[in-house]
């Protein structure tokens, strides 16, 4: 049986190879296993990418090997590297990844990108609402690009609210944001220039088939979108006429086959699609809309 601990590695490169082989045995895809082993070695030995690239044959210390071994055991249990190391890059920011809070995904950057593309004046004092803020990734990214904007982050999960708060502080944005623990826009008054949301959208019946990295480590509250995956969109869209300014924009992240369904929900409430954003895989990942002309 393979051991979590690399067997007396003599070099960084050997340690990476041993950990990668161990991860492949545990079911991690080969290229991913290589990337993960490299990232964990870099963290265990406090190395920059450049240092590792320049001296792959340098030996690792016992202490580094022990640390790497602990990381490898967790990764073999299919915990994502971002959770093991406690942080991930999102947009231009380094965010804390907290237990019991959704690990922000690269495709969510498409929501940030699409929203920014629809904002005509980035220096305006915009009011932004992030529904289901999780780690706070979306709001942090938007506030970092909109120097005079202010934001409200809402989440039902206390752990998510704490993570949003930690990330806003880490990014130096806490003084421009407020966090509300609650159900979508229920307790909010006032209207917003931009409402953004990446709500739970996985069909309930599909959750058992998700990768272990998601199923075992992301909270169910962040995943479960009900029988057809659209329950949360229905709830949020019903409240948009009350919460969105008449010249405001709403932007949703959607599952890879949900853009048409979400556009239809918006259309039923008097919103016209302004832009559809595609992720790096070419999937329609974001639906952004505006109130149709004439709607107050
Ligand atoms: C898919 S995660 C998105 C997290 C984060 N915005 C991101 O993109 O990484 C959805 C978030 O919605 C929150 N949530 C689920 N149901 C909610 C509700 N009824 N009201 C407010 N937040 C809710 C979850 O706790 C979770 O943090």
Automatic annotation (TrEMBL):
It catalyses: L-glutaminyl-[peptide chain release factor] + S-adenosyl-L-methionine = N(5)-methyl-L-glutaminyl-[peptide chain release factor] + S-adenosyl-L-homocysteine + H(+). Keywords: Methyltransferase, S-adenosyl-L-methionine, Transferase. It comes from the Bacteria. The keyword S-adenosyl-L-methionine applies. Substrate binds at residues 198-201. InterPro entries: DNA_methylase_N6_adenine_CS (IPR002052), HemK-like (IPR004556), N5-glutamine_MTase (IPR050320), PrmC_N (IPR040758), RF_methyltr_PrmC (IPR019874), SAM-dependent_MTases_sf (IPR029063), Small_mtfrase_dom (IPR007848). S-adenosyl-L-methionine binds at residues 132-136, 155, 184, 198. The keyword S-adenosyl-L-methionine applies. Residues 14-86 form the Release factor glutamine methyltransferase N-terminal domain. Residues 117-204 form the Methyltransferase small domain. It holds the Pfam family MTS. One of its GO terms (biological process) is methylation. Its EC number is 2.1.1.297. GO terms for molecular function: nucleic acid binding; peptide chain release factor N(5)-glutamine methyltransferase activity. Belongs to the protein N5-glutamine methyltransferase family. PrmC subfamily. This is Release factor glutamine methyltransferase.
